[in-house]
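RECORD TYPE: inverse folding
INPUT: structure tokens
STRUCTURE:
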């Protein structure tokens, strides 16, 4: 059995070691931040820029494809091969379905034989006329004999048989993706029966509804920014292709057509938020809209200089919801901000003038 005095000494020794360790840690930490030094607050900044401020109209619309085709059989026959499945990407001119060509080939040969027989009948009758009269037949006589022999009808039948043989293979009319394939090998189909649906996912459009008071300020060929639920936090660029002339009498809204390029994620039928360029204000001093806050009822921004947040009262101009123009002071004409200055957009709402700050990335500031 251990002596109580020895146990007490062991406990006291461990406690001393722990205290020494705590003291070492405190001493080490004190070398990082001097005692009494102010703490630099983490903030997020963004540069002031000079450029065009684009004012916009925000609306909503449905994404549509510029080309959606339901392919139908143009000749009757039996499906011999199906080369594709729903969801396949296809190129223009690619073979999708092939009908059994043998019956169509036989119809072509039959039409060729009928035309040859008609030409023989024509030649026999013309030759008889020439021998009997001793004179070549007149043009009127030739036209009559041609029609009597059935040559025009036989020629039309031959062209139709050739066309039907060509139509035994159904091709993709443009680049796209197959939405559906509605026939199977061995199926007997008739002319006009649906074969497959092809959708162009590259060339897309949005028919955005715009209130009548906003229609005159839209700029054809102006920029558009599209947001969809499938791409959170991202926007897709587009262009205003046209502003249609009619205004709906009930909703008092017209239509702006926006064209955009598909990226593999956007799909016809999706609803999108659309920001349409309305007016472009050239050569402006621009800050993020979040940088402008109010103190004492006046707009101001925090500018980072020498590691400190300095507030500057500003003459805030127009905003598009993301960016705002900063105008020269109305009294002095002085512009307080210059391109390249850093203004704060996060972590600045409760700052005081001349606060010590540390610029960080947004993610670090949110943790």
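DESIGNED SEQUENCE:
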């Amino acid at each position: 059995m251990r002596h109580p005095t020895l146990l007490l000494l062991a406990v006291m020794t461990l406690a001393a070691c722990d205290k020494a360790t705590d003291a070492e840690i405190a001493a080490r930490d004190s070398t990082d931040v001097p005692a009494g030094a102010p703490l630099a607050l983490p903030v997020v900044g963004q540069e002031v820029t000079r450029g065009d401020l684009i004012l916009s109209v925000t609306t909503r619309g449905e994404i549509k494809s510029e080309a959606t085709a339901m392919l139908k059989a143009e000749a009757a026959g039996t499906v011999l091969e199906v080369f594709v499945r729903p969801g396949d990407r296809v190129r223009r001119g690619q073979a999708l379905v092939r009908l059994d060509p043998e019956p169509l080939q036989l119809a072509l040969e039959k039409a060729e034989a009928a035309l040859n027989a008609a030409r023989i009948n024509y030649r026999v009758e013309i030759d008889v006329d020439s021998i009997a009269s001793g004179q070549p037949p007149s043009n009127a006589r030739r036209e009559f004999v041609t029609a009597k022999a059935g040559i025009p009808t036989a020629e039309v039948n031959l062209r139709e048989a050739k066309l039907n043989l060509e139509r035994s293979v159904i091709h993709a009319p443009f680049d796209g993706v197959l939405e559906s394939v509605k026939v199977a090998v061995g199926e007997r189909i008739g002319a006009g029966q649906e074969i497959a649906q092809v959708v162009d996912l590259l060339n897309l459009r949005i028919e955005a509804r715009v209130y009548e008071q906003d229609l005159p300020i839209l700029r054809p060929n102006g920029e558009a920014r599209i947001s969809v639920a499938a791409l959170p936090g991202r926007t897709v660029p587009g262009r205003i292709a046209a502003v249609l002339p009619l205004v709906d009498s009930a909703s008092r809204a017209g239509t702006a057509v926006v064209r955009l390029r598909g990226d593999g994620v956007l799909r016809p039928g999706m609803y999108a938020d659309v920001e349409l360029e309305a007016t472009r204000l050239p050569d402006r001093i621009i800050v993020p809209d979040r940088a402008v806050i109010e103190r004492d009822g006046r707009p101001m921004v925090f500018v980072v200089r020498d590691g400190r947040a300095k507030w500057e009262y500003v003459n805030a101009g127009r905003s598009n919801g993301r960016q705002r123009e900063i105008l020269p002071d109305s009294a002095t004409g002085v512009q307080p901000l210059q391109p390249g200055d850093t203004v704060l957009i996060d972590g600045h709402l409760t700052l005081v003038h001349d606060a010590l700050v540390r610029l960080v990335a947004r993610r670090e500031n949110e943790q």
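NOTES: Helices lie at 4-32, 102-133, 139-149, 151-166, 362-366.
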